[in-house]
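User: Fold this, then the next.

Assistant: Folding the first:
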Amino acid sequence: MAKTTENAQRLRELTSLAENSRISISKAVQDLQQSTQMGRRVEVSFRENMYAWMGAAAVVGLVLARLPSRKKKGFLNKSSAEEMPVAKSAGWLALLGVIFQIFRPILQKILAEQVQTFAANKFAKESPRRV
C-alpha cells in the first residue's frame, strides 16, 4: 500500500514538472514569435516614440535635400540635337520605384486585408448551411 501511494506521489510530481516545462516552453515560444515580428515592433516603436521618428525623418529629409544634385545626363540625337525622352522618363521611373519600395509593406497589408474580407464574404455566401 505504501508503495502505491509513493508511486502516485511520484507520478503527481512528474506531471507537475511536465506541466511547468510545457508552460515555460510555450512562454519562450511566444516571446520568440513576438521578437521576430519586425513590422509589429516598428509599429509599436513608432506609436511609443512618434516625435523621435518624426524628428529622424525630418533630419534625413534635410540631409537628402542638402546633397548635391546629380548632373543631368542627356543623350543627344546627332541629327536633331534634341534630348531623348528616355533620359527624362528614367528619372521618374527610378523615383516611382523608390516610392513603391517605401510603401510596399503598407500596400501589401491593405491588399491582404481586402483579399481576406472578399474571400470571407464570398465563401460565407456560397457555402451551404448545415442544420
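Now the next one, as you asked:
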Amino acid sequence: MLLGVNPQSADQRGAEAERLSDTFTDLACDFATLVCQTEDAAAEPLCQAGYPDFLDIARSRMCEVQEHGSALGGNVRGAASISGETDSDSAEDFAGVRAEIAARIEGSTYAYTTVGDAAQRAGYAETPETP
C-alpha cells in the first residue's frame, strides 16, 4: 500500500479548514444561549428543571468541540508542512537511486517488462512494426 501527501493540496485544505474554524469561535456561547432560550420556551416547570443540568454537562463538551474545530486548520497546515519537509529530505537521501536501479536491471539476468510491452502482449496496444 502506498501512502502519500501532496503538501500543496494539504496546505490549501488546511487554509480552508482555518476559514471554517471561524465558525467555531462562539460555539459554546451560542449553544448556551440556545439551551437557555429553549428552557424559557418550555411550558412545564418540571420540564424546565432539567435544562440547567443539561447545560452544565454539555457546556464542557461544546468547549472541547470549539477548541478542536478552531485548531483543525492549523493542525492540517502543520502536517502539510512536515510532509513537505519529509519529502524534501527523502528526495535528497534517494537522489540518484533511480539511475542505479536502472543500471542494475540493465546488467542483470532478470527480465522486466515495461507497461507498453505488457500492453502489446495482452493485445491492448499495437505492436510496432520492425524495420
